[in-house]
Amino acid sequence: MAQRVAHWFAFEASHFYRLPHLSAEQNLRLFGKAARPHGHNYRVLVTFYALPETPPAYWEQLADAIRQHIDAQLDHRCLNQEHPAFRSQLPTTENLAVYLWHNLRAHLNAPVEQVSVYESETLFSTYAGEQQVGADNIPRPVVALTRVYTFSAAHRLYNPQLSEEQNRALYGKCANPYGHGHDYRLEITVKGVPDPITGMVFSLSDLDAVVETEVLRHLDHKFLNEEVPPFDRIVPTSENIVAFVVERLKPHLQGKARLAAVRLWETPRSCFEWQE
User: In degrees rounded to 5, what are phi and psi of residue 165?
Assistant: First the structure.
């Protein structure tokens, strides 16, 4: 039976988002401060296909080879100016994930299943080899882009159709009549073909605006049971909050980039997820 093995890697690099046919002012309007040279502590998660009989030493040797391969190409580089792959395309996380997926499979014969490139704690992209053929019959990569948001809210887990004793038995201290709160971490994943010019699945500023309007302004710093319909009628469990987020975002994310997943961390130990 096939299994999966995953390894983390890291590199430090700089980049900028700048299109040569646009003026400095136009690039600044399109990409914001990312149009200026800046850098990141990138993290890369590589997941491999694995057979049970593969000896552990193989994975350690492969990890060392990949680490050296990534360092030699990307570490302490300006990606736009020092890597040939990113002279003709912008070094977005989407393009980096696609590049590394193909590069590691081709040059190291590595059994790579998927590659995730983390630009920061709040932005990463994942590529797993999926392609979409356009009207021109050219296959293009389908990439998942994940953006992370946070909000703080209070809630009470209480079903009015049950007695106090039944609610206490079902929800424990979460049924406290005055409620309790969480610092929620919300991961929104959209999936699509990166734009051939910008290298992005979806404009981050547009995604931020949709999530702010449709989700965060309704949930952040609210007592959900009392201030946010439908949680005045249904129990505001994290499962129901995820369903609320999906219902509000899906109509806005059905074009070239579609809503693919919503993951909500209620605490660092518990999360709830919807996938398309």
Answer: -65, -40
Q: Which domains does the chain possess?
A: 1-129 (3.30.479.10), 142-276 (3.30.479.10)
For residues 202 and 30, give the distance between their C-alpha atoms in angstroms, rounded to a whole number. 12
Q: Could you give the percent of the chain with pLDDT greater than 70?
A: 99
Mean pLDDT across the chain: 94
Distance CA 126, CA 239 (A): 24
Q: Which residues are catalytically annotated?
A: 174, 221, 266
Q: Residue 29: what pLDDT?
A: 87
Please give the C-alpha separations between residue 261 and each of 40, 58, 123, 127, 162, in angstroms, as whole numbers: 25, 33, 14, 14, 32
pTM: predicted TM-score of the whole model, two decimal places: 0.93
Query: How would residue 257 be classed by pLDDT, with cut points 50, 70 and 90?
Result: very high
Amino acid letter, 48: F
Beta strands, E only, the chain: 3-15, 38-50, 77-78, 112-120, 123-127, 131-133, 139-141, 143-155, 180-192, 222-223, 258-267, 270-275
Using the predicted structure, report yes or no on whether residue 37 has a pLDDT greater than 90.
yes
